[in-house]
């Protein structure tokens, strides 16, 4: 019986190692940044398919990109109120969407508008 127990333990160990392979590579990955007129910048990494990265709203951002099929110029708008304070930010996205290279740059009148007009992609 000890022989059976050690053989079973070895088989279970091998099975556990075989099923816990590396995580799948993301289908899409971006470096996103916002820069204000003084030059202060913030940036995050966003990966989709599966959703991951240090973006504070990774699931919402990937969902917005999915609805726009990775086209930053077609991101859905969020229904949200923003002040009319003019404090422009330049938004940039560099990376790839399902293997296709993406480079996007635009200017929003403030951070709230960047969030609202990008479906949350630039909400950081």
TrEMBL record:
Q: Name one GO molecular function term.
A: peptidase activity
* Biological process terms in GO annotation: proteolysis
Enumerate the subcellular locations listed in this protein's record, separating them with semicolons.
Secreted
Q: Which InterPro entries match?
A: Prot_inh_I16_SSI (IPR000691), Subtilisin_inhibitor (IPR023549), Subtilisin_inhibitor-like_sf (IPR036819)
Q: Does the keyword Ligase apply?
A: no
The entry's keywords:
Disulfide bond, Hydrolase, Protease, Protease inhibitor, Secreted, Serine protease inhibitor
Q: Where is the Subtilisin inhibitor domain?
A: 39-110
Q: Name one Pfam family in it.
A: SSI
The UniProt entry's GO CC annotations, sorted and at most eight, read: extracellular region
Q: Which Gene3D superfamilies match?
A: Subtilisin inhibitor-like
Q: So what family is this one in?
A: Belongs to the protease inhibitor I16 (SSI) family.
Q: How does it assemble?
A: Homodimer.
Designated name of the protein? Serine protease
Source organism of this protein record:
Saccharomonospora piscinae
> Where is the organism placed in the taxonomic lineage, from the top?
Bacteria, Bacillati, Actinomycetota, Actinomycetes, Pseudonocardiales
